[in-house]
Amino acid sequence: MLHSKPIDEAHARQAIAAGEFADDIVHSSRNVAVVLTQGWCPEWMAMHRWLDGMIKRGEPGTLDIDLYQLIYDRVPYFREFLRFKEGTLGNYEVPYVRYYVDGRLVRESNYCSPAEFLTPFTV
C-alpha cells in the first residue's frame, strides 16, 4: 500500500542544509518515494490522479511504500527549495521522483506511469 506523507518545512529545510533527505524519511519504510513538484504542472496533475487512486484502492497490495510529497511552489521557501532541487539534486523538471530502498537512493525519474513508479520497489 502507498502511505501518503507530506514533507514539512523542517524536513525540507534539513534537506536543503544537508543535501539529502533525513534518515527518518528515507528509512521510514523499506520502500520510499519522494515526489517534488509544482502545483501547476500538467504531468504532476496526471500523476497525482493515479497516485491518489492507488492510495484509495489500497494498491499495491503486496508492497508498502511511504510516499512523501512536496508541492514546493506553494511554500514560502520556494526559491530556496528550487535552488536545492535544481542545484544540489540536479533536476530541472517536474514532477521529480526519488526512489529509496532500504534508505539508499536507487532511482530518479520525472513523470512516469504507475508501472514505472513501482518498478524500483519490485526488483
Number of domains: 1
What's the total count of β strands? Answer: 5
Distance between the termini: 17 Å
Briefly note the structural class of the backbone.
alpha/beta
Strand order of the largest sheet: 1-3-2-4-5
Morphology: globular
Contiguous low-pLDDT stretches (5 residues minimum) are none
Please describe what this structure looks like:
This protein is α/β, with parallel strands linked by helices and 123 residues long. Helix content is 37%, strand content 25%. The chain has a five-stranded mixed sheet with strand order 1-3-2-4-5, covered by helices on one side. The longest helix is centred in the middle third of the chain and has 16 residues.
Chain-wise SSE layout:
Elements lengths: L1 E5 L2 H10 L4 H4 L4 E7 L4 H16 L7 E7 L6 H11 L7 E6 L2 E6 L4 H5 L5
Parallel strand pairs: 1-3, 2-3
Antiparallel strand pairs: 2-4, 4-5
Helix pairs in contact: 1-4
Concise structural overview:
The chain is an alpha/beta fold. It has helices spanning 9-18, 23-26, 42-57, 78-88, 114-118, and strands spanning 2-6, 31-37, 65-71, 96-101, 104-109.
Features:
single chain, 123 residues, alpha/beta, Glutaredoxin, five-stranded mixed β-sheet, 25% strand, globular
